[in-house]
Design goal:
CATH architecture of the largest domain in chain B: Orthogonal Bundle
Largest interface: A-B, 27 and 22 residues
Strand content of chain B: under 5%
CATH class of the largest domain in chain A: Alpha Beta
CATH architecture of the largest domain in chain A: 3-Layer(aba) Sandwich
Strand content of chain A: 15-25%
CATH class of the largest domain in chain B: Mainly Alpha
Largest sheet of chain B: none
Number of strands of chain A: 9
Number of helices of chain A: 8
Number of helices of chain B: 11
Bound molecules: adenosine-5'-triphosphate, magnesium ion
CATH topology of the largest domain in chain B: MetI-like fold
Number of strands of chain B: 0
Shape of chain B: globular
Helix content of chain B: over 70%
Distance between the termini of chain A: 48 Å
Number of domains of chain B: 2
Radius of gyration of chain B: 22 Å
CATH superfamily of the largest domain in chain B: MetI-like
Oligomer: heterodimer
CATH superfamily of the largest domain in chain A: P-loop containing nucleotide triphosphate hydrolases
Strand order of the largest sheet of chain A: 5-6-7-3-8-9
CATH topology of the largest domain in chain A: Rossmann fold
Structural class of chain A: alpha/beta
Largest sheet of chain A: 6 strands, mixed
Chain lengths: ~280, ~250
């Protein structure tokens, strides 16, 4: 077991005794979110009144047709983009922890920094002392199984290993909310499955509120506590689905027929929101 | 590139000097070429020793070194700053780009009289003429590199809490270092040419000055000493930035 971190809000003990989702406090509350890109002549309305509530330590998956505004939503949530209208309330963390950290689909880590420098980057930006940030970074490098690669540069790593670095950096930041934008979208099926398992293990050890964007219905159902399907652009939440599959969702523990039923349900919701059939 | 490979490359760089020296020495000794115009390298070498130790060659070398160093420093820092600004701000680029496009194809040596009328016949005018050439090449290279920085790297830095200065130090500078180095290398290439021409026509010290006066006074061996020195200077200033750039960017290789 890992010693609990001083800076961590999470008490390791509470992991096992997860309160029912509906009773946990709200961490992210979004109301009527609007975002329009002004690109030259044409305006692109990416988000059209999006409402969403995500609770503490909930693993929330977001699905939707391509171009419906999923990445836009994460960028607005993270503060990288300004919203046009609406309300975003994210629980403010206590001292020296960020509100959110993003894991990118690709090219999220810096080619000119070693693995450990990449993982420690957020801590460095928050002026955590060198010794402390190396220690924290090292711990998360081990957690994502990259021991021995601390001083490697990203170009020496495979795609899956690079995503592990990005994930380690996000967890090392210890944010209130973890935002993930198709983090495994570019990986082959086998690597993807392996990283999914590692992610869930890490998340159960260091529980966080997660908003996870994906195109992959199976992935959403396998990972999430709950999922939301977005409408076509301008995006809003079309429908929410509870994923009532017991954890751990290992092969022998997984209710495959229930999983298939859920996937079918999501599939038909997605078909409903995708208006233009030629897309 | 590994350390061994780099060392081999530097060693191989001596190849042209050695092979030309052997061929030349032989043909000059046997008077296959006119030793009045092509004195054998052994003669040139012993003369070089003499000129550097007892003559005024060191003064000329230092004069040239000083000019190219100051020009490189001025043009280099100015070029990095201007290129970064242009790469980050479309508005700055819109204003400066036309100026650069017009200045770029103009042979900078043609500006020397203008520089003299602005600053008098001074070192300042000579150095600024060379610095302008370095500035143009470095700023154009830097601008391109800054524009090529991945948006996702900027976003990742900001998401991790990077401020404005962090963004430059942690993302933009390392991301553009390789192109800055090659810009400097190109800039020095042009600056060496300018240096020699300026010293030939409008200076009373420096290696270019020595080359021209030696020719006029028909001191051919002395001409070769200056020529060889300029060659070494050129190699160091043109390949130096690339080597330093590689050393500073270990993530690009290995
Ligand atoms: N910087 C931008 N300027 C103008 N339009 C943009 C910009 N970024 C995104 N858009 C447009 O906004 C819409 C939503 O984009 P977004 O990237 O959020 O979609 P997405 O749901 O993440 O798509 P995907 O599933 O393909 O990743 C798209 O139509 C896109 O073309
Ligand atoms: Mg997207």
């Amino acid at each position: 077991m890992i010693p609990p971190e001083g800076a961590t809000s999470e008490d390791v003990k509470t992991v096992t005794e997860r309160a029912p989702a509906k009773e946990r406090p709200v961490r992210v509350n979004v109301q009527g979110l609007e975002k329009t890109y002004r690109a030259g002549e044409e305006d692109v309305r990416a988000l059209g009144g999006l409402d969403l509530t995500v609770r503490d330590r909930e693993f929330f998956c977001l699905l939707g047709p391509s171009g419906c505004g999923k990445s836009t939503f994460l960028r607005v949530l993270s503060g990288l983009l300004e919203k046009d209208a609406g309300r975003i309330a994210v629980e403010e963390p206590e001292a020296n922890r960020p509100t959110s950290s993003m894991v990118f689909q690709e090219k999220g880590i810096f080619p000119w920094k070693t693995v450990i420098e990449n993982v420690a980057f957020g801590l460095k930006m928050r002026d955590v002392p060198v010794a402390r940030r190396r220690e924290v970074a090292q711990r998360y490098i081990e957690k994502v199984n990259l021991e021995g690669f601390e001083d490697a540069y990203p170009h020496q790593l495979s795609g899956g290993m690079k995503q592990r670095v990005d994930i380690a950096r996000a967890f090392a930041n210890d944010p209130e909310v973890l935002l993930m934008d198709e983090p495994f979208g570019d990986l082959d099926a086998q690597t993807k499955r392996q990283l999914q398992e590692e992610l869930v293990t890490l998340w159960q050890e260091r529980p966080k509120t997660v908003i996870y964007v994906t195109h992959d219905i199976e992935e959403a159902v396998r990972l999430g506590d709950r999922l939301g399907v977005m409408t076509d652009r301008p995006g809003r939440i079309a429908e929410l689905v509870d994923i009532d599959l017991a954890r751990p969702r290992t092969r022998d523990n997984l209710d495959l027929s229930r999983m298939e039923a859920l996937q079918n349900r999501v599939w038909s919701i997605l078909e409903g929101v995708t208006q233009s059939p030629h897309e | 590139m590994s350390r061994v490979a780099r060392r081999t490359r530097w060693a191989l760089l001596l190849g042209p000097f050695v092979s030309v020296a052997i061929l030349w020495e032989g043909t000059a000794r046997f008077e296959l070429i006119d030793p009045n115009f092509f004195p054998p390298p052994s003669t040139v070498l012993s003369l070089a020793m003499d000129l550097y130790l007892h003559g005024d060659f060191l003064t000329h070398l230092l004069a040239s070194l000083r000019r190219i160093t100051f020009a490189g420093l001025l043009g280099g820092t100015g070029g990095i700053a201007l290129g970064t600004l242009m790469g980050r701000s479309p508005r700055v680029k819109a204003v400066t780009d036309p100026h650069l496009s017009i200045l770029y194809p103009l042979p900078k040596i043609a500006l020397l009289p203008i520089m003299f009328s602005l600053f008098g016949v001074t070192e300042m005018a000579r150095i600024l003429t060379m610095a302008l050439a370095v500035l143009l090449l470095v700023s154009i290279n830097t601008m391109g590199a800054v524009q090529q920085i991945e948006d996702s790297h900027i976003e990742a830095a900001m998401d991790n809490g990077a401020g404005r200065i962090d963004l430059y130090r942690e993302v933009i500078l390392p991301g553009t270092l390789p192109q800055i180095a090659s810009g400097l290398s190109l800039g020095f290439g042009v600056a060496v040419v300018l240096l020699v021409i300026i010293e030939m026509v409008a200076a009373d010290a420096g290696l270019g000055y020595v080359i021209w006066t030696s020719w006029q006074q028909f001191k051919i061996p002395q001409l070769y000493v200056a020529l060889f020195t300029i060659n070494v200077l050129g190699v160091v200033f043109v390949h130096g930035p690339e080597e330093i750039g590689e050393w500073l960017t270990p993530w690009q290789h290995g």
